[in-house]
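A further point concerns the way the authors explain their paired sequence and structure data. Since the whole study asks how a given chain folds, the encoding of that fold should be made plain. A single example would do more here than another paragraph of explanation. An entry of this sort, consisting of the sequence and the corresponding backbone structure tokens, reads as follows:

_____
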Amino acid sequence: MAILGYHDFSRTLPATEMRMNTDTFRAQMQALKTAGVPIITMKDFLDWKLGDKQLPAKCVLITIDDGWKSVYTDAYPILREMKIPFTVFPYTKFITGRGSAMSREQIQEMLNNEPLWAAIPSATCTPGPGAQPRERARRPSWTWPPRK
């Protein structure tokens, strides 16, 4: 299994360690689809970690960190078009829609599309000190907005 982690995307700004050219991202996603590589959801991954599910020997999980607006404007249209599931791990304090940050409305739109293409973990997914290991692994909540 491979976990592919992304952060930021742009059609015009130069690529960096944290920013990928949008066309390159599209080419990577198309290569996965063309090769027939199974792309799993975060739920599949967590179920596998708990021993509740078998996964193909070769599969991929797509994750995107931080919650930059380019996730919505650049990556999401590609992932939606290709029906590729993905998980976004945003800094929930900065989901304001200002500057380069995604808005709550953008996140909600991604969550509203079926099948589940976007899973946005809640900011309150840290278990309490008495939680058992199995509880900790199941704890993420795929809801928006995060509970306080």
